[in-house]
From TrEMBL:
Family under the similarity heading: Belongs to the glycosyltransferase 20 family.
An example molecular function term from Gene Ontology annotations: alpha,alpha-trehalose-phosphate synthase (UDP-forming) activity
InterPro entries, A to Z: Glyco_trans_20
GO annotation, biological process: trehalose biosynthetic process
CDD domains membership: GT20_TPS
Full protein name: Trehalose-6-phosphate synthase
Pfam families: Glyco_transf_20 (PF00982)
Length: 456
């Protein structure tokens, strides 16, 4: 049985970083194959980075490197997060195409590949994660590795027209075709990628996920990522969850809770969501004083200008909506720009009547799945989900909305608040079954089966 070798920007070398679903899934695969995990240490150093640090834990070898200031800026902050992230989320208007950032992106992909190749042995399989390392397959091949390489993209893959806006799209597409198995979150993303190869690279779609392109035969499939469904359901009835629910219950004073939980990112559609909530108070006066919207929005990438602008925009909108509709004893909308413990989040999901998951684009969106698993079967809340989240392909039994259409979102929130118990239960049971059956282990196994890695 061969080893699995994972490569991702951040690893779970620090045990406290093993809490998230993805980290757990990769970690479990590695412990069962005695594998290795390569990535960034999280440290930024002045001058040249020293040799990579080796950490061994439960049979898994982590090899992590520091970034120089130039690498952190050019590779991470600029090309990955100010070029690929906006373009792949259909925000070409927000992309900053600098002169030198792609060079930094290439160099880091090559440096990490060069760090990995000497450790690879015959029989190993490599699993690369996410948009930071789109060129990794190419550099691993150039370094002499001809064994299997899988790649999973956690964010959307844009339509061919949008992808072509990326000045380096040809080089990136060619490099991506050095992977053997390419995993996407949804059929829509997979089909965008395949269409690009067919229309622009003379690729041939052979069906069943197989594509012939650039003299190679590769596979591209949808592997929708899941969560640790059963254990999340347990968190939601734990003590920490109950305490959080009691705390927000004091604030609500018997009113219904409409909840949002998102990293503060422009892809998550927060301003549009705030406006839709404002519209609801406007168009459905019976909700005034009876409903409160709370958005949990931990800041992310706060060094990047577009994220600072978003913060200002949210402050203004929240101020205006509360000014217009609020009363002496009622705050209609509030957002908390801080992070809560996962157990506390589970408690908040459980007492929410409605969860608004309305990104403008999202690879999958795990919040939607967490909300489903946290519900009380006797009185489940209602999920409102954007048609542009990857999760909408699996969770089609919920209320699906166009997040740009504030009027319709407002109407849908009202409909969700008024939905009879029987309908809520029927819909929730279907969603629950999907989230449980297609959980994080299912996702991992489905991907690794196609890469032909035995992790049992
Ligand atoms: C990328 C893709 C894809 C949020 N606030 C707090 C907190 N969270 C947790 C949620 C959830 C996670 O963060 C967010 O996951 P998402 O899937 O919603 O979004 P991204 O971070 O953008 O992730 C996405 C994902 O990768 C996996 O492939 O689904 O499309 O963009 O788990 O619960 N966690 C804690 N405190 C918070 O305040 N502890």
């Amino acid at each position: 049985m061969g080893r699995l070798i994972a490569i991702s920007n951040r690893t779970a070398a620090d045990p406290s970083a093993r809490a998230g679903g993805l980290a757990v899934a990769v970690w479990e695969s590695l412990t069962s194959t005695g594998g290795m995990w390569f990535g960034w240490s999280g440290n930024i150093v002045k001058g040249e980075p020293g040799p990579p640090e080796h950490i061994t834990d439960e049979g898994v070898d982590f090899v992590v490197t520091d970034f120089t200031e130039a690498e952190h800026d050019g590779f991470y902050l600029q090309y990955a997060n100010r070029v690929i992230w906006p373009v792949f989320h259909y925000r070409v208007d927000l992309a900053h195409f600098g002169d030198t950032d792609f060079e930094a992106y290439e160099k880091v992909n090559k440096r990490i590949a060069d760090m990995v190749v000497p450790h690879l042995e015959k029989g190993d399989s490599v699993w690369v994660h996410d948009y930071h390392f789109l060129l990794m397959g190419d550099f691993l091949r150039k370094g002499g590795w001809d064994g299997p390489i899988g790649f999973f993209l956690h964010i959307p893959f844009p339509s061919p027209e949008v992808f072509r806006a990326l000045p380096e799209h040809e080089q990136i597409a060619r490099a991506m075709c050095e992977f053997d198995v390419l995993g996407f979150q949804s059929e829509n993303d997979r089909s965008n990628f395949v269409q690009f190869l067919v229309r622009s690279c003379d690729g041939v779609d052979e069906g069943d996920g197989w594509i012939s392109v650039f003299g190679r035969r590769i596979r591209a499939n949808a592997y929708p990522i899941g969560i640790e469904a059963e254990s999340f359901a347990k968190l939601a009835v734990g003590q920490r969850a109950k305490t959080a629910a009691t705390r927000i219950g004091k604030f609500l004073g018997g009113r219904k809770l409409v909840l949002g939980v998102d990293r503060m990112d422009y892809s998550k559609g927060l301003p549009q969501r705030f406006e839709a909530v404002g519209k609801m108070f406007d168009n459905f006066p019976s909700t005034r004083g009876r409903v409160s919207f709370t958005q949990i929005a931990p800041p992310s990438r706060s060094k990047v200008e577009e994220y600072q602008d978003l913060r200002v925009q949210l402050d203004e909108l929240a101020g205006r909506i509360n000014g217009d509709y609020g009363d002496l004893d009622w705050i209609p909308l509030r957002y908390l720009a801080r992070s809560y413990d996962r157990k506390e989040l589970a408690g908040l999901y459980r007492i929410a009547s409605v969860c608004l998951v309305t990104p403008l684009r999202d690879g999958m969106n795990l919040v939607a799945k967490e909300f489903v698993m946290a519900q009380d079967p006797d009185d489940p809340g209602v999920l409102i989900l954007s048609q542009f989240a990857g999760a909408a392909e699996q969770l089609s039994d919920t209320l699906i909305v166009n997040p740009h259409d504030r009027y319709h979102v407002a109407e849908t929130i009202y409909k969700a608040l008024e939905m009879p118990l029987e309908e809520r239960q029927e819909r929730w049971e279907k969603l629950r079954r999907t989230v449980v059956e297609q959980d994080i282990s299912w996702w991992r196994q489905k991907f690794l089966d196609d890469l032909d890695v035995d992790t049992c």
